[in-house]
Design a protein that fits this description.
It is a single chain. With about 300 residues, the protein is mostly beta strands. It has a domain of about 100 residues. Helix content is about 0%, strand content about 60%. It is built from no helices and 28 strands. The strands form 7 sheets. The protein has a 5-stranded antiparallel sheet with strand order 1-7-6-5-4, with no helix packed on it. A 5-stranded antiparallel sheet has the order 2-3-28-27-26, with no helix packed on it. The radius of gyration is 19 Å and the shape is globular. The relative contact order is 0.15.
Length: about 300
């Protein structure tokens, strides 16, 4: 593994209140190295990012400014996740056999800087879900689990969108498909479980972003935001983007209150800001621009 050091350009934005009065942007950190699709860990002190086309995976320590190369393999930057205790990183590596694409699941130990394969290459690999001692993944129409220790615990509640764009819930060994909007043809994407495991966040193509309970009952409609992620149990971060049919012409990152329905613009007006990640524990939000600048924002809740 290769470790390098880069400068981080930081500046404080005083205390800027924008739109909603319950959230304020306190500071912004711009990463000197360009990248895409950042992923903050739970603690908010480390962040993953990748190159264009999900090529390779790097991690930056936001305190020490140290950048470590996790992988240089294709596909490694597609939806990597930190373990719940931030000790490991789970990511996929893409390979080809007989002109067919396969994805394996790899585990990287943040302390030892060593990698090991958790799941052998699979033809259809959907969302990766970290657990305390390993990882579970929805592969085709089945769940696979790989543990780092022999003492395995019960797999936690797991939700994801499968290859048919259906919401799939895995609980107590049972798989259930949800259709909260009663659509004749499922088009669910960006499905995720709330930090308290009580609510499901999802986007329905052409209809908007919603929150439902574990049985599929709609609790809240958040309007037309894309790539939504949980900030905490009460706030969601997403992007409001527009395109001309060929390319994105505008996109801003917004933070929304689930109950109060207030909205705060997090990104700067001149930016085309996309694909946010969030850590409510550290009050941080990160995103990339169309040209590969990554910004890390610290917010304050009033």
């Amino acid at each position: 593994m290769r470790t390098t050091f880069f400068l981080i350009i930081a500046f404080t934005v005083g205390t800027i209140a924008v739109q909603a009065q319950n959230v304020i942007v306190k500071s912004r950190i711009s990463i000197a190295e360009k990248g895409f699709f950042p992923v903050l860990n739970t603690s908010g002190n480390k962040m993953l990012f990748t190159a264009d086309g999900y090529a390779g995976l790097k991690m930056i320590d936001l305190q020490t400014k140290q950048i470590t190369t996790i992988s240089t393999v294709g596909g490694a930057g597609y939806e990597p996740v930190f373990a719940p205790d931030d000790s490991r990183i789970y990511f996929r590596e893409t390979s080809f056999k007989n002109n067919l694409r396969y994805n394996s699941v790899e585990s990287y130990d943040v302390t030892t800087k060593r990698s090991q394969q958790m799941l052998a290459p699979q033809r259809i690999l959907n969302k990766i879900q970290p657990i305390n001692n390993g990882v579970i993944a929805y592969v085709g129409n089945k769940m696979l689990r790989s543990s780092l220790t022999k003492n395995t615990t019960t797999a936690p509640l797991f939700v994801a969108a499968n290859e048919d764009l259906q919401i799939v819930k895995h609980s107590n060994g049972k798989i259930e498909k949800l259709n909260p909007l009663n659509m004749p043809e499922s088009r669910y994407i960006w499905v995720s479980l709330s930090p308290d495991n009580q609510k499901i966040l999802f986007t329905a193509a052409g209809k908007g972003t919603f929150i439902c309970d574990l049985k599929g009952k709609i609790l809240s409609s958040l309007g037309s935001i894309n790539a939504p992620v949980w900030f905490n149990n009460d706030y969601v971060v997403g992007m409001e983007d527009k395109d001309d049919g060929h390319r994105v012409v505008s996109s801003k990152i917004v933070m929304m209150s689930i109950t109060k329905k207030t909205k705060t613009e997090i990104s700067q007006s001149q930016q085309i800001a996309m694909y946010p990640t969030a850590s409510g524990k550290s009050n941080r939000i990160a995103y990339h621009t169309e040209t590969g600048e990554i910004e890390v924002i610290t917010v304050k809740m009033k």
